[in-house]
Specification:
Helix content of chain A: 25-40%
Order of helices and strands of chain B: EHEHEHEHHEHEHEHEHEEEEH
Catalytic activity (chain B): GTP + H2O = GDP + phosphate + H(+)
CATH topology of the largest domain in chain A: TIM Barrel
Helix content of chain B: 25-40%
CATH superfamily of the largest domain in chain A: Metal-dependent hydrolases
InterPro entries (chain B): CobW-likC_sf (IPR036627), CobW-like_C (IPR011629), CobW/HypB/UreG_nucleotide-bd (IPR003495), P-loop_NTPase (IPR027417), Zinc-reg_GTPase_activator (IPR051316)
Number of domains of chain A: 3
CATH architecture of the largest domain in chain B: 3-Layer(aba) Sandwich
Strand content of chain A: 15-25%
Keywords (chain B): Chaperone, Hydrolase, Nucleotide-binding
Domain CobW C-terminal (chain B): 219-309
Number of domains of chain B: 2
Oligomer: heterodimer
CATH superfamily of the largest domain in chain B: P-loop containing nucleotide triphosphate hydrolases
GO molecular function (chain B): hydrolase activity; nucleotide binding
Largest sheet of chain A: 8 strands, parallel
CATH topology of the largest domain in chain B: Rossmann fold
Distance between the termini of chain A: 46 Å
CATH architecture of the largest domain in chain A: Alpha-Beta Barrel
Chain lengths: 581, 316
């Protein structure tokens, strides 16, 4: 028989005793009135006592479980406010064609396509990678629909080249995507045409990929579910109790709901519906935004958010800046949507209680976004929804106070807030002057704003402890390089960023983010006192021992609580999701 | 050939192959002409002090790393602003980083917003005769990509290899690839500039040797003309089968299947057709062919073109 639901309401009867008491800990509560404690008492998922063990004695009843923390460091759970386990893992788990040869000849490619078709019978899409142009040229062949039709005429085929600049498709794929000589090119790419007839040649360049993706079946829910399952497994075992999965569609929400229903969604998730189809198509966008999203709602899952890409990134110089890029006379980058579009959209979403999470890397993009929020506040008043400026790579100093004024969350992603070969190379494109004020946590915090951290995996590591350490050092965590990017903040500030501020960003500040009576028992126990040693090369090595969400034991590294009858959802070492950095 | 669009020459080649030597030659050639050069690094160009004042404005630097690895945004913008320069540029030479695939730039130039303003004229890849065959792994793959993207290979430093090495190199590069052999990255103007190929103002004399200038003594060019429309598929077949000694074909073609005349440009193994806007020139096909001076296949070429003519009346 299934477990009965156990929701509590205003008139539910409440017990007298705690379900669990964790005692003899060094508990960093994030409650300014009571910053340190020795023990916590938990009942029905909530904290009913945060004090000394002696003071909590009264909560100890005949059925109360008691666990001795043996002096271990305990704190509220971590908040990773921007990440993408689906984008990182789903491609690994999907069963696409992988030619598996660095530079296959057309003949090898042909054999590979035919073998895949044999092992995947039917009339479904054949999608995969890679081919290279030069082996075609060397063989005296022209890549494109004609060649691909000669290999596979009756099933749609789409193959990416190794440079990721071109997708080769056959006639069937073009037909299913509805692309012919009358079709217009997208703004951010094009498809190659025969110059005399205008017919597509079957080579889709850059942004034209999306035209094919739109015709393909979406990533299966089972693949997405596996990706999210591994993502939350990792996050729980690294102490994350709340996270935002930025960019979802109906398939992704279904996968998250299935995890939730099976009791494996061990992290509180805010899922942001994609406003554009630039990563994957969202077929039920308008249904979701107008109310269908509520069907997915639970204590662990919310889809009351929307995400969009407002500008680009540093490498292609597409971040939208207030002044021209270095070495450029007038190029400032570009916005993917007009300011008018974004203003109307923010006003509309704000009215519906939907959080807008805007990808803004350039100081020009965040400037326009803040203007849009200002207009929403002017028209709607404060709706209670705090919108989120994602990445916030560069912020104009004049905009720092506006985060507080407008109730906008400044989210920073650690991809390049400390020196690494990647960061030093890629981010140097902004120029030295801008590099000095990159990821300005300190500026936002000093101006009274709410700053949060989002790992943005797979752009950066999903490990929150790496982000936490480098917030404090802004230095490379693995060597002695004295180089430092931007302004560090104190450990106290950084811990506030990943706990209390995260809760504010989730809209859950009343129920989590600190260890206070009445709040949810979202807490972690770790293997070290974070204040005991200098942060560098120390904090990122932290091991999480126990993770609780809503009082539920979701992770128990050494199964220490098994003897008192508590079985965690996840046990043992965290899963290995990424290679060594 | 097309007065409205700026010709773009892409210069590629592996590190140390001799690109800078070639670019220096091109910068000198830029003197007094409306030619801009986009380089990866100013520092490597020893621009002669005497000509620096004239050419500085025409040399643009892309120092933010390898242009071919970045997405096109800034390149699109840079091309866009170059297209607005007055007096109008005739040609842009763009240098690719030594460890990049020029295909990236080729694809950028085909973006719809650039197509109306510029036209890829040719990709020249400088190949180091002493090192090309020794490259390994990812470097070897990049070098192959550079060779494959090229309309013309400048086989450089050939004085440092013996005849047998040269032969095996030629074999690797393929029979139909257009190859010009050099020692110090010398590139005859005839191979990359259009000065001899002014089709519109050429006296119409079928199959006449039309160019005997000093600097093009290694090459000869011929004019073929016809008032009979051509079959496009036969013409394409003829273009694809052109021998490696024929470097370039360009001119106006009147096609049997099309309503309009087209400008045709064929470099290496790549053909481009563009609808001709000038109605006056739309009545006859006039093609200029440029080949190695000692090329002996003119008769076959002419016969091939003759065979492209659609002799019977095509009902309209």
């Amino acid at each position: 028989m299934a477990e009965s639901d156990n929701f509590s309401s205003t008139h539910s009867t409440q017990g007298t005793y705690a379900d669990l008491i964790l005692g003899n800990g060094r508990i960093y509560t994030q409650d300014p009135a009571n910053p340190w404690a020795e023990a916590v008492a938990i009942r029905d998922g909530k904290l009913i006592g945060v004090a000394s063990l002696v003071e909590l004695e009264a909560f100890k009843g005949p059925n109360t479980r008691v666990h001795d923390l043996q002096g271990a460091f305990c704190m509220p759970g971590l908040h990773d406010m921007h990440t993408h386990p689906d984008l990182a893992l789903a491609p690994r788990y999907s069963d696409d064609l992988d030619v598996g040869i660095e530079d296959p000849t057309p003949e090898q490619l042909r054999e590979s396509i035919l073998a895949y078709a044999d092992s995947h019978p039917g009339d479904g899409w054949i999608y995969g990678q890679y081919w290279v142009r030069y082996t075609f040229r060397e063989a005296g062949l022209t890549p494109g629909r004609a060649w691909l039709d000669s290999v596979m005429p009756d099933r749609p085929v789409a193959l990416l080249d190794r440079m990721w600049g071109t997708m080769m498709v056959n006639s069937k794929a073009l037909e299913l995507a509805g692309i012919d000589r009358h079709t217009s090119d997208p703004r951010n790419g094009y498809f190659e045409r025969d110059e005399l007839t205008g017919e597509p040649t079957g080579l889709m360049i850059d942004g034209a990929y999306a035209m094919i993706h739109a015709a393909m079946p979406p990533t299966p829910v089972s693949v997405l579910r596996r990706a999210y399952r591994d993502g939350v497994h990792f996050q729980s075992s690294r102490g994350v109790t709340a996270s935002k999965y930025v960019h979802v569609c109906e398939q992704r929400l279904q996968a998250l709901k299935e995890l939730d229903d099976s009791g494996e969604l061990t992290v509180r998730i805010e899922a942001a519906i994609s406003w554009q189809d630039d990563i994957f198509p969202v077929r039920r966008r308008w249904e979701l935004l107008s109310g269908e999203r509520h069907y997915y709602r639970s204590a662990r899952l919310s889809a009351n958010a929307v995400k969009f890409h407002f500008d680009g990134t540093v490498e292609p110089k597409s971040s939208y800046l207030l002044t021209p890029w270095p070495e450029e006379k007038s190029w400032r980058g570009k916005l993917n949507l007009t300011p008018e579009h974004i203003t109307d959209m923010v006003v509309d979403m704000d009215r519906q209680g939907i959080r807008v999470i805007a990808h803004c890397t350039g100081d020009g993009a965040s400037d326009v976004f803040l203007d849009a929020v200002a207009e929403a506040r002017r028209r709607n008043g404060f709706s209670g929804v705090r919108h989120q400026c994602a990445h916030s790579t560069l912020l104009h100093p004049g905009n720092l106070p506006r985060f507080k004024e407008l109730n906008v969350i400044a989210e920073f992603s650690p991809a390049a807030w400390y020196p690494t070969p990647f960061a030093s190379g890629a981010r140097s494109g902004y120029g030295q002057e801008r590099l000095k004020r990159i990821y300005d946590f300190k500026g936002v915090l000093e101006a009274g704003g709410t700053a949060v951290m989002g790992t943005d995996w797979p752009v950066a590591s999903i490990d929150p402890w790496l982000a936490l350490e480098t917030m404090v050092t802004r230095q490379n965590p693995w060597n002695d390089d004295p180089a430092c990017f931007g302004d560090p903040i104190s450990l106290e500030q950084a811990l506030n960023v990943v706990t209390r501020n995260g809760a504010v960003a989730m809209g859950l500040e009343a129920s989590t983010g600190s260890l206070e009576v009445g709040k949810s028992a979202d807490l972690i126990v770790i293997d070290r006192d974070l204040f005991a040693e200098p942060a560098r090369n120390y904090i990122h090595q932290t091991q999480v021992l126990l993770t609780f969400v809503e009082g539920q034991l979701v992770y128990d590294r050494h199964s220490t609580l098994a003897p008192i009858g508590l079985k965690a959802v996840w046990q043992g070492e965290p899963p290995v999701l990424e290679g060594k950095a | 050939m097309d007065g409205q669009r700026i010709a773009v020459t892409v210069v590629s080649g592996f590190l140390g192959a001799g690109k800078t030597t070639l670019l220096n030659r091109m910068v000198r050639r830029a003197e007094g002409s409306r030619l801009a050069v986009i380089v990866n690094d100013f520092g490597e160009l020893n621009i002669d002090a005497a000509i620096v004042s004239e050419v500085t404005d025409a040399v643009y630097s892309l120092q933010n790393g390898c242009i071919c690895c970045t997405v096109q945004e800034d390149l699109l913008a840079q091309f866009g602003s170059l297209a607005q320069l007055q007096p109008r540029l005739e040609r842009i030479v763009i240098e690719c980083s030594g460890v990049s695939d020029p295909q990236r730039i080729v694809q950028t130039l085909a973006y719809p917003q650039l197509r109306s303003q510029m036209q890829l004229d040719m990709v020249i890849t400088v190949v180091d005769a002493t090192r090309h065959l020794q490259l390994e792994g990812e470097y070897a793959r990049l070098a192959r990509a550079q060779v494959a993207a090229a309309d013309l290979l400048l086989l450089n430093k050939t004085d440092l290899v013996d005849a047998q090495q040269l032969q095996s190199l030629r074999a690797v590069l393929g029979e139909r690839t257009r190859v010009h052999v050099s020692v110090q990255a010398e590139l005859p103007d005839a191979l990359w500039l259009d000065t001899d190929l002014d089709v519109e103002h050429r006296a119409v004399k079928p199959l006449t040797l039309v160019s005997q200038d000093d600097h093009s003594q290694m090459f000869s060019s011929e004019l073929w003309q016809s008032t009979t429309p051509l079959d496009v598929e036969r013409l394409r077949g003829w273009l694809q089968a052109l021998p490696g000694d024929v470097f370039r074909v360009k001119g106006l073609v009147v096609l049997a299947q099309g309503a309009k005349a087209h400008w045709l440009q064929h470099v290496g193994t790549r053909s481009q057709f563009l609808p001709a806007t000038d109605e006056a020139g739309a009545s006859a096909t006039r093609l200029v062919l440029i080949a190695r001076r000692d090329f002996g296949g003119w008769d076959a070429l002419r016969q091939g073109l003759d065979a492209c003519q659609v002799t019977e009346n095509v009902p309209t």
